[in-house]
Amino acid sequence: MSESNELTFGLPLDEQVETTSDATLDLGITESTSNDGEQKIKGLSKAEYDDPNQIRVTIADGRAPLVILFGPPACGKTMTLVRLARYLNKKGYIISPVKTFRPSDDQNYVEICKPENFNRIINSPDAANSTANISFMLVEIIKDGKRLCQILESPGEYLFNPNKPSEPFPSYVNTIIHSNNRKLWAIMVEPDWRNVEDRINYVTRINELSTRMDVRDKTLFIFNKIDKTNFTRKKGQINIPQARVEISNLYPGIFETFRNQNPISKLWKNYLCGFVPFQTGTYTQTTKMDSRGNVVYNYQEGADYYPQILWEQISKSITG
Ligand SMILES: Nc1nc2c(ncn2[C@@H]2O[C@H](COP(=O)(O)OP(=O)(O)OP(=O)(O)O)[C@@H](O)[C@H]2O)c(=O)[nH]1
Ligand SMILES: [Mg+2]
């Protein structure tokens, strides 16, 4: 880490300027998120795309806690960020993208960071399509002039690609792991996700990550897409213990590495990780097609209950 409070993650870039995407924001008329990892990642230079170890991100504030959204492609990381941002905006927080996160030759990121574009993506009824522009994102959450935390998202295929389950993390992920910021790992899980082999591989990935976490790091499991389950009693009323059991059945051993080993505190706290159910919203198919022939989905945000309990858990973890 440098003497200053600035951390630069990943390897330095060669003098490359070629990018894999154009600089225009095509809100609402973009490809939907690919599940197979074949889609080019928006904003990466060709060198970064060809060799993910070249990907460079910078956390200029090495002190404000980091909340890292961790999960495979299409589990809902970006939409979780969108939903939380909408909720916190209503509650008087300021959420803004951190421009320095990506090198300035990432024109896609430069465009997303412009307040008018960022607000449009967050508040768009086409949010699910618009967020295809977001691959890397760091936002800061500010209240009363104080930066409370930073929330970081990066492409799922670099975190856990089910088609390449044993592939090592690219260097930018390792450097995030090694950063001195206090961290909350927000690990996303969803129901009905692929085959049991893929889910077991994902548990292995989480176990590997947990052995590399700092002792101060916290972990929160986010059970997204809860609307696809039967654990909803009424709007925003979830049978959380049952939902948790479902996740340990679907993803065998997922919580074991977080079992509390302290002989005293384990009497009232079995596990050292949090767990929240979540729904980003409802996605309704429209008759509109985007310029590439993809169906446009209309996004209606889910109940406030979900971002409320998520924010409570995040706040507890970053201040406790
Ligand atoms: N039913 C349901 N679907 C959801 C929910 N949240 C997200 N989705 C669906 O999942 C898709 C992918 O969500 P994203 O937020 O783009 O996923 P991601 O984890 O950021 O994916 P990558 O950036 O590719 O790693 C959305 O377009 C929705 O179709 C939810 O709460 N319920
Ligand atoms: Mg995403």
Question: Can you walk me through this structure?
Answer:
With 320 residues, this protein is of the alpha/beta class. It has a domain at 57-93 and 137-319: Rossmann fold. The protein is built from ten helices and 13 strands. The strands form four sheets. Strands 4-5-6-3-7-8-11 form a seven-stranded mixed sheet, sandwiched between helices. A hairpin with a 2-residue loop joins strand 5 (137-143) and strand 6 (146-153). Helix 2 (77-90) packs across helix 10 (305-319). The longest helix is centred in the middle third of the chain and has 16 residues, at 196-211. The chain is globular, with a radius of gyration of 19 Å. The chain binds guanosine-5'-triphosphate and magnesium ion. The site of magnesium ion has 4 residues, from helix 2.
